[in-house]
Amino acid sequence: MDCSRRDLALLLPGLLAAAQAADAARPHHKDTVLPSKCYPFDSLHERTNPKTHNQTRQVLDGLTHDRFHIDLHITTLAPGEMPHPPHSHVWEEMTLVQKGTLEATISGQSTRVGPGGVIYVASENRHGWKNVGDTPAQYFVIAFRGTEPE
């Protein structure tokens, strides 16, 4: 099928509207300014790691009104499991423990953190954690990714 420039010009507004609608349907897209909204736990999509059976629920992944990228997810970690191997990254990260006991290691220093405890990891610090309890641990991770493009 041949399309003229006029045909394409007529299609363009519809394509733009469809792209905007698709973006609006993804409120957590990292380039989207986050709206004021409530996020009931049961409404958050749950992803399960097939190897460890750990569960993650993405809450936020987008920009504040001043274009600061923030990422928030909730993880439920099985006893004896780690979410991933120790690593480091350029952004800062804060973890708030809701249930269970994590052993957090930051730059080679380990500390046990229970319910109500907070773990803060500065930029480029090697870190990781493990559920050292006998029940699932649940925690919130807030990544402060900043204003620089990733």
Keywords:
single chain, 150 residues, mainly beta, 6-stranded antiparallel beta sheet, 1 helix, 13% helix, globular
How would you characterize the overall build of this protein?
The protein has 150 residues and is mostly beta strands. The chain is 13% helix and 39% strand. It contains one helix and nine strands, in the order αβββββββββ. The protein has one helix at residues 5-24, and strands at residues 46-48, 55-63, 69-77, 92-99, 102-106, 109-113, 118-121, 127-131, 137-146. The strands form two sheets. Strands 1-2-3-9-4-7 form a six-stranded antiparallel beta sheet, with no helix packed on it. Strands 6-5-8 form a three-stranded antiparallel beta sheet, with no helix packed on it. Strand 5 and strand 6 form a beta hairpin. The longest helix is centred in the first third of the chain and has 20 residues, at 5-24. The chain is globular. The two termini are 39 Å apart.
